[in-house]
């Protein structure tokens, strides 16, 4: 059973992603902001982290960099899920330590398969 931590401040985005993932047997935990997401990641050691870039208090780039400094999370895939879709945003997310990048709004038909490829 794969555990996924979603760090996302938007309630509707959290609800939709959680619903889709739980329908496919994933266990989903969520954090509203970067600091609580980092804390939760250290405690729960999820198999995958879904990370919004536009967060209150601390942006997703800083969260990704902080997560990458935690030894126990070095191999944990981090996937940016963001509405930032300008030229260079994907590279910026990958440069901060993310392994992948999914644009919002998420596509309910392909979201779970996009996530699953990071868990193989």
TrEMBL record:
<keyword id="KW-0597">Phosphoprotein</keyword>
<dbReference type="InterPro" id="IPR001789">
    <property type="entry name" value="Sig_transdc_resp-reg_receiver"/>
</dbReference>
<dbReference type="GO" id="GO:0000160">
    <property type="term" value="P:phosphorelay signal transduction system"/>
</dbReference>
<dbReference type="Pfam" id="PF00072">
    <property type="entry name" value="Response_reg"/>
</dbReference>
<dbReference type="InterPro" id="IPR011006">
    <property type="entry name" value="CheY-like_superfamily"/>
</dbReference>
<keyword id="KW-0902">Two-component regulatory system</keyword>
<feature type="modified residue" description="4-aspartylphosphate">
    <location>
        <position position="52"/>
    </location>
</feature>
<protein>
    <submittedName>
        <fullName>Response regulator receiver protein</fullName>
    </submittedName>
</protein>
<feature type="domain" description="Response regulatory">
    <location>
        <begin position="3"/>
        <end position="119"/>
    </location>
</feature>
